[in-house]
Design goal:
Layout lengths: L3 E10 L2 E11 L4 E5 L6 H8 L7 E6 L6 E4 L2 E4 L2 H8 L2 E4 L11 H11 L5 H14 L15 H13 L5 E5 L7 H16 L3 E5 L3 H7 L2 E6 L2 E6 L1 H6 L4 H10 L1
Parallel strand pairs: 3-9, 3-10, 7-8, 8-9
Antiparallel strand pairs: 1-2, 1-4, 5-6, 10-11
Helix pairs in contact: 3-4, 3-5, 4-5, 5-6
The protein binds adenosine-5'-diphosphate and magnesium ion (MG).
InterPro entries: AAA+_ATPase, ABC_ATPase_HisP-typ, ABC_transporter-like_ATP-bd, ABC_transporter-like_CS, MetN_ABC_transporter-like, P-loop_NTPase
GO molecular function: ATP binding; ATP hydrolysis activity; ATPase-coupled polar amino acid-transporter activity
EC number: 7.4.2.1
Length: about 250
């Protein structure tokens, strides 16, 4: 079974259709990189996966089921919020602006999900959080508050926090776009390691080097559609469509 399946997904904001029939399959352990110009719908597509946005037509299946909806007869009904929260816990999300809890240390940020949502015992949550912070190279920063960390360190805490819930898939929305250039590499390294460990990932990124090296599939989005998708070298080096070519010429 695919880990994430987008089936003819549409999304409108008012009269404006921003996703116009997205079809994409993410297999277990695959890394799919979504590239495309600003405003093309990449963030909206990611946000629909964990039901931060409602779709207007089509369906997204995560491990074979919808996060935000239940089927009632031949209708889709929005699921209860408590049920959505439960289903969502298997999806890790990392945002451009880190979104850490500012009043919590790095360790507390990473312990928060297991403590509050999984009701894990404190000692267990702490041991796990220490392990994850070690994995992202922050064993010596566990007591620091976000304001005492660089952007790259904050983003690595955010990745550890998402991993604390043992997600089946990790969604990254331009995780390095807010970082000073010299801090981008440390975050991409953590993401590469995660990919090599077999994590299923959807990554919105402008880092073409990362996409080329790590992705199994690159999908180019423009104006609410996936213009082309395929192996990184095919899409990035031998694009079939003029829109892809002109985008790549602008970003590289
Ligand atoms: P990208 O991430 O590729 O830059 P987005 O998914 O953020 O693109 O945006 C796609 C389009 O949807 C844009 O035209 C944007 O203005 C619009 N949009 C995004 N969020 C909203 C919203 N909450 N309300 C209205 N329009 C929105
Ligand atoms: Mg975006």
């Amino acid at each position: 079974m695919a880990t994430v399946e987008f089936l003819n997904v549409h999304k409108s904001f008012g009269d404006v259709e921003v996703l116009k029939g997205i079809n994409l399959t993410v297999q277990p352990q695959q890394v799919v990189c979504l590239i495309g110009p600003s405003g093309s719908g990449k963030s909206t597509l990611l946000r629909c996966v964990n039901h931060l946005e409602m779709t207007t037509a089509g369906a997204i299946l995560v491990d074979g089921r919808m996060i935000g909806y239940d089927v009632k007869g031949d209708q889709l009904m929005e699921a209860r919020q408590s049920e959505i929260n439960k289903r969502r816990s298997k999806i890790g999300m990392v945002f451009q602006n880190f979104n850490l809890f500012g009043h919590m240390t790095a360790l507390e940020n990473v312990m928060h999900g297991p403590l509050k949502l999984l009701k894990a015992p404190r000692a267990e949550a702490e041991a796990k959080a220490r392990g994850l912070l070690g994995k992202v190279g922050l064993a010596d920063k566990i007591g620091n508050y976000p304001s005492q960390l660089s952007g790259g360190q904050q983003q690595r805490v955010a990745i550890a926090r998402a991993l604390s819930m043992d997600p089946d898939v990790m969604l990254f929305d331009e995780p390095t776009s807010a970082l000073d250039p010299e801090l981008v590499g440390e975050v991409l390294e953590v993401m590469k390691k995660l990919a090599r460990s077999g994590m299923t990932m959807i990554v919105v990124t402008h880092e073409m080097g990362f996409a080329r090296e790590v992705a199994d599939v690159v999908a180019f989005m423009d104006n609410g559609v996936i213009v082309e998708q395929g192996a990184p070298d095919d899409v990035l080096l031998h694009p079939q469509h003029e829109r892809t070519r002109s985008f790549l010429a602008r970003v590289s």
